[in-house]
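User: Hey, quick favor. My workstation is busy. Could you predict this chain's structure for me?
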Amino acid sequence: MLFGLFLTLGVAVLSVALRSFQTSFAQKAGAIGILVSTFLAVYFVSGSWGFGLIAALTWLFLPWLEILTRIRALRLPKEKALRPKSPPSAEVFPTLEDITREIQNEGFAHINDAGWDWEDYRQFFRLFYKEEDRAQATICLNEQNDLSFYYLRISSRANDGIIWTTWNYPLSYGLKLTPQFRINRQRPDQSFWQLYQSHREFLRLNQVETSVIDPMDEDRIQVEVENDLRDQIAHNIKKGVLKSTADGEVKYSWRGMVYLWCQFLLDLVRL
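Assistant: No problem, here it is.
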């Protein structure tokens, strides 16, 4: 009995320690460790492998609590028109200016700040452009209720319609991307310099030359961001992830909620 107790505590403590690291591998290994420690705890108490397995698998269904409460009630507009927006406060986004300086140090010019608000959901975009590479960089902040997170994105829009994108989106993405996107996903702990180098290598491996990338200006950058958001909503309605409501908004369908859960499972095992 003492052996089981110490083994379970050891696995649990190791799992929590791994979750405190910023690397993707360590955090996901920690998540798997939590499943293992739950299995061990129930197994040593009940003596049943079956009960232990059921208890461990219960963690995989916990996202349904949020899906059936917050996500199911979520409503979004079909049209997301960006407006000039003041940057969030230092309490909300304390590293905004540091990241801005890091991006500008790589030769990107700050174009403008924009975003949109809808009920308790808010998005903020700080847009940058590097004329030499025809590359667009964006700091993206998502806020809803007491949950907020940010990610960085670098995009190169080819003249054949393909959008070559490198980002460090930290969660399972909740919508299907439109077919023209080609995604190079990186870890959320990477610096902008690392993302930028990865993006340049991404273009090189796919033989995308600067000459085939469309040049942009301030007005077109914002228009293209709006078009991306609009096209994404339309694409997800077509795929059945979203559905229209009677008052002209959109919400997740049952198929979309299952898709969200599958994205969570995929992100858990993607080491």
